[in-house]
Amino acid sequence: MQSKWYRVLNVLAVFVMVAMLAACAAPTPQVVEKVVTQVVEKEKVVEKPVEVEKVVTQVVEKQVEVQVPAAPVTTMVYNSYQSDPAPRAADEETVKMFMEKYPNIKVVHSTVAHEDFKQAIRAYLTSSQPPDVMTWFAGNRARFFIDKGQILDISDVWANEGWNESYPKGFQALSTVNGKQYFVPTSYYWWAVYYNKKVFEKYNLTPPETWEDFLKVCETLKSNGVTPIVSGTKNAWPAAAWFDYLNMRVNGPEFHINLMLGTEKYDDPRVKKAFEYWAELLDNGYFIENAASYDWQDVLPFMLQEKAAMYLMGQFVMDSIPEENKADYDFFRFPIIDPAVPIGEDAPTDGYFAAANAPHPEAAKQFLAFLGSKEVQTYVAEELKRLPTNTEVDTSSFPEASKKGMELLAGADYIAQFFDRDTTPEMAEKGMAAFQAFWNDTTQIDTILADLEKERALIFAAE
Amino acid sequence: MATKGAIRPGRWRQSGGKTAWIPYLFLAAPLALFLMWVIGPMIYSFYLSLTNWDGVSAPAFIGLRNYVRLFDDKIFWIAIGNNAKWVISFITLPVVIGLALAMVLNRDIPGAKAIKSAFYSPYIIAPVVIGLIWGWMYQPATGLFNSVLNAVGVEKTPGWLSDPRLATWCIIAAAIWRQVGYVMTLYLAGLQGVDPSLIDASQVDGCNFWQTFRNVILPLLSPVTVVVVVISIIDSLRSFDLVFVMTRGGPANSSSVLANMMYIEAFNNYKMGYGAAIAVVLFLITAVFIFIYLWQTLRTELEY
């Protein structure tokens, strides 16, 4: 008979294998000491339109008073999701500028891939040694952590820096919860239909303004063997842009935001109507085939090779277009479907916050003040062509594209953040899977919306 | 399994009761670590599955509500179905192909070593890299498969990973490609243990190749087969990396498996409690196969 020891080892070895599975879902949670029993006074941040037209040059140079703490050197940690090459370079340069200005603060800067950062942030914030400063998204995504008491109150930074004057009201609202500021919005960008000008010229097309014109453009392109619209929906968010815009154009931004906040239903006939416009494009074959096979950047070569023409994307799409081809690209406002409906646009705002239990809160505040300053915002706007939130930044020398983007947003009645920032992460996940399902088979729309409504009821009942 | 004639710890006990506690002394440290890092988190997962923990706030006990919701979740049943496809594919194709390769390559044919290495090499590549490489091959416009299909004149090429009906099978194909070499190696090792005199004897008795294989080699390989099948089942239930890299469970959850669903619910949707419930279900399913395996190995050991 074999020994018992041997058998025990066998059992243990096998259990290790199993436990690997179960242990996956069990990172040791830090029971948060500051359990915020907050009166849910839901401020609907997104409903307040960003006042874009307030971007006015202020000539007065304000001397920012900075209290430089005496030596020794403080070492603080900054975690960033700026993992694409161009933003990453700008990010690193910003850190360098900060350390040159404040030699007594050393910033340990680490960059985590965008999608991974979204998963990791909860672990960062609940650890006993969180990073001091982090990049994050304004709106619902930031609110989630602020409501749970995980984010440092930086009202003093806002007051000292005079941001209550130099930031437009819309951005102040995005950063404020119960009268206190927690967030530094630093840049935002617009969404629009980007197109290859060469293709449009070849077929004598002009950027469409109405839905009818848009359909005509698509039809002309298709009949000439050019794919009218590309999208890479392997990660489903590029599809969500189509839903955002169609729903806002057909039903108006107010209905859209309420749907995002869970107070309207997905089986509402109005939602279905928005999907019918989408189905028209899909059924006519105006979208690229097998969109779900591609990441969002993967479809750019088709546009570059003039095999495809248009892409509904954020301004950051230009980061991934080669320098020598940038001049071939332009954008136009998502076509108007019903002129009677107020115009909503997606303009996601990015920024920074600090952890509530940051080990170096003073250094963190210093860094946040620097990031929100005119100096840094001017630099980032020049490098990446994002729009600055600080109205002190001189925009008169901005390139044409940025001015056009600002105009586009100035003409909007409402500014939304984006599907996965305006609604809860879980609802966003289910919604985007539903868009993929719809994309694949438009005839299933009723089932898809019924399922989505079931999810919505569950998700928002739990809130 | 192959420790016949090795020193048995049992002899220690015979040599005197005084030293019987010594093995426990050596086991204490690993057991403590094992309890802390494996058993502890496992039990904690069970507890979390009964809470609504979101990863940030303090968990609140909600009874079996996560499970009730789980069994009503369409994605859960899609994922279970896909896991079943994985298990069935894994215990058939790689096992049969691996065994066939082992039988062929066990002889002294020229170049056998090179061929063995070639078949084993996918196993040493990280699954994430395999996912990326196969993902490129499946690319509908420029990928290898569709380029070949276009070259031979196929007009309507499939969308592979973007086709909900094909996505899971495409991922499984990549996984099988990786698994075959591993199974082959296990069988090659098993064949080394087959006594050549038994094969000679069967041939003296007039068996043809098939009879020898069916009645002599295969029964002698059965301990290896049990190991291979169980490892294949566990590997297939554990499948996550390839799915995550190649489709992230999409399009529209059509290629989701339990591990992938658990990851998305727990880490993307901030629903640790719900994710833990999925982990528990996955654990229970896996445990069934583990117990079959243990029961098998213990029984065969007794037979020897």
Describe the structure.
The complex is a heterodimer of chains A (463) and B (304). Chain A is an alpha/beta fold and 463 residues long. Chain A folds into 2 domains: 47-57 and 64-189 and 348-416, D-Maltodextrin-Binding Protein, domain 2; 191-346 and 424-462, D-Maltodextrin-Binding Protein, domain 2 (3-Layer(aba) Sandwich). Chain A is 45% helix and 13% strand. Chain A has helices at 4-23, 85-101, 114-126, 140-147, 155-161, 163-166, 169-175, 197-202, 211-223, 237-251, 253-260, 269-283, 300-304, 361-371, 374-384, 400-410, 419-422, 425-440, 445-462; strands at residues 74-80, 105-111, 133-137, 176-177, 180-181, 184-188, 191-196, 227-229, 308-314, 329-332, 344-346, 349-354, 387-388, 414-416. Chain A has a 6-stranded mixed sheet with strand order 2-1-3-12-6-13, with helices on both faces. Chain A has a 4-stranded mixed sheet with strand order 8-9-7-10. Chain A is globular and about 70 Å long. Chain A starts with a helix and ends with a helix. With 304 residues, chain B is mainly α. Chain B has one domain (56-303): Orthogonal Bundle (MetI-like fold), CATH 1.10.3720. Helices cover 71% and strands 0% of the residues of chain B. Chain B is built from 13 helices and no strands. Chain B starts with 9 loop residues before the first helix and ends with a helix. The model of chain B is unreliable at 1-7 (pLDDT under 50). Classes of the chains: A alpha/beta (463), B mainly alpha (304). At the A-B interface, helix 1, helix 3, helix 18 and helix 19 of A face helix 2, helix 12 and helix 13 of B.
